[in-house]
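new request in #modeling-help
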Amino acid sequence: MLARIASELYWVGRNIVRAEHTARMLDGLFLLELEGGAEDPASVPLSWQSIVVVMGIEDAEAAGSDITREGVIRSLSGDRDNPYSLISCVGAAREGARQLRETLPAEVWESLNTYHLTMRRRNLEHGPRTGPDSAYSYVKERSALFWGLCLATMQRDAAYSFLGAGARIEAAEMVLRMLRVAFPPVRSADDESLELPRRDGNAIALLRATGGFQAFMRSAAAAPRAEPVARFLLFESAFPDSVAGSVTQLGRLVGRIDPAGSTATLRIARLISDLGLRSRSELTPAEMPRAFREIQNEIERVESDIAARYFSPDDQGIQHAVLS
Amino acid sequence: MSEAASEPPTRDPFAAYQCLAGRFDEAISPDGAPRAHTRRMLETLARLGEQRLVRAAERRETIFLQQGITFDSAGPDEGSGDRPFALDLIPRILTASEWNFISAGVAQRVKALNHFVSDVYGAREIVREGLVPWPLIASRPGFARPAHGIEPPNGVFCHVTGCDLVRDQAGEWRVLEDNVRVPSGISYVLENRIAMGRMLPELFGGYSVRPVANYPEFLFNALAAAAPSPRGRPTVVVWTPGPANSAYFEHAFLARQMGVELVEASDLVVHDGTCFMKTTDGLARVDSIYRRIAEEFIDPVEFRPDSLLGVPGLVNAARLGNVAIANALGTGIADDKAIYHYVPTMIRFYLGEEPLLANVDTYLLGDPEQLENVLGRLDQLVVKPTGESGGKGVFIGPSATEREMADVRAAIEADPANWIAQEVVWLSCAPTLTAAGTVAPRALDLRPFAVYGERIEIVPGGLTRVALGEGSMIVNSSQGGGSKDTWVLTEPDDDSLALAPGLTPQFEPPSLPALPQVPWATQSQHQQQQHARRVAAPPRAGIG
């Protein structure tokens, strides 16, 4: 498969998932924020500011979004100038798919194109005033339709693997980013007896923002409190959008592309073992931020490995080409 | 109202709002100005205008039907059938101090009712003290002989109680009745809040509303606390009579929210005094059953032998202390409208406290003197059958016809002990959106839900039911009533929520790298960026 095509597929997968997770996150926070004021410590510190941090938008004001509910929703829903907005992600996925018309099944392309056209027609600017949930459910439904069509109509070949690999990387990345923002480091080194603030409001919002509330309630032998929720979203590989779930699927997909193994497959395998090991040991609230950061760093390395191995063959020389 | 409809639709929906004479209005003070805590909401509503409200109302139907949130209605004008639960778009707001009073009053009442049930099926001290007559207790349909001597492991009988509160002409809270059997409606409290957020998020602006979403956790904890003996996380189930039940939606909702199984009778079996459910892994022991089924159907061995919905031997399993049933068997006695009259007595007797929430003045018609007095002024009183719920058979004197009056008189004379009479409470009103798109005062009540586990937890607010007909005071959802989202505001300086000053931990918001983006213009640019990224990020050490 052409490296360019592989890269486009990978990014289509990433963008579709990015839009879906952003929609879930906005929806979850929107509902959370209506209840309990900002003064309620249970809802600290998930806020609209958090979402901007999750997306890694450094200079929010320069990006044209003031940190209010309306500002963030507008900027991340219908703002075509913001590369992280729903409309931009879907547009980017569709633009990528346009260059993949010979690879993607026609039904998948048509569905994605309809998704894009409808998003453009929808008055997302109007969303904040009428309740933006209809746009979010549309994004979730269309995303499900996209993956459903891929599942039903695509040959399980390298193209399918790259599409899925992009999706799983993005899901793992987004969930980790949310965890990092929801459970930030606490500056309290001088006083060990200091109790951590109740973050249970966060925990439930986090489950909502990942679509995992019901899955958590069915699987976990615990109330939706901070620590079990963090463990669930990291380690519960039976939940597809958990970090472990995403990385395990990623390993399977990349393994299919590269049965002989590569830095990427080895690193993924090591990450899976690492997650397994961590899941069997204690994870105190104080240790969480560091664990999240380490896991996220490793996922970033997997990303660069994948990009280096598959999307930039000129750097690899001829060797790999001969081997594979 | 007809001339109002022809006006431009963007006008203030409150333009024609008139408080009802002689009624307490929850949003407007007697001088016609909005109350302090409702002012902001009324301003927002006025700003949104009528058109916006009507549009939101249209979306409401879709949202509720889509989610399958329906209530089986037996309204007078239509046949029975699923209809969307009618949520009014204008929330009811309770201040923190009002709520503190209500929740203290409800908790007190629930505690006393629990003592009473325990006493009735145990030592009967309140009877021996001569405070409540035994013949009255024993003749109640809610009195369950098989429950005698069953003491739940943690002493709690009334795990879930819904007290129906009303506000009288003076704005005083009074208890209209206690629902201690299988009170329903909590799912609407949670769904209403979500729907309000979706339909009219602007209304929340400037308010700090206490969340209601933790109810399932309270309920689970209470059910777990009731479980017989600690064997790890207890197995809790919700028992529904089946999909044909009018509250099936709520049963499924609670099971889903708690992450537990929703079972029917055929899923349960009792062996050797222990209750199991039938799973793909064989029989699994059940520790706690939240039953949403009337107790007379629960076990054909002990109650109605013709019940097909029951589990034979279940009562015996509960008697042996092998399974907890919530609410416990026999709680119907505390639910009876003749027993209601004695609740203030119970509070004084068991708790040694004065009741915080007053009863409505009630006459027991089993007493010949009271009966005579009541029959003389039927047109001024409300008359209710004692063993019913859901507003069935309630007769309201002031609005009754001659014919109805004669019928109810005959029914009372035939069996006076099964009726009570109460003074009419002119329910308080609150602004409510009418079918015509205007806002008018409508009567309402409030059902807070108390969950009794290790202690009593009450979700802030509860179900506000509203009579949708003009002048109507029947709020029951099975009789065509609607509901309102009920907001309890946090206190501006609520110390219970804030951390002690100086101890407030400082959060360092993590600084995350920007999500990677690939420009789509040309592939060469893409690769350039890949290069750039790798140069910028040299390989780092492996994970520790």
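bot summary: Chain A has one domain: 3-183+199-323.
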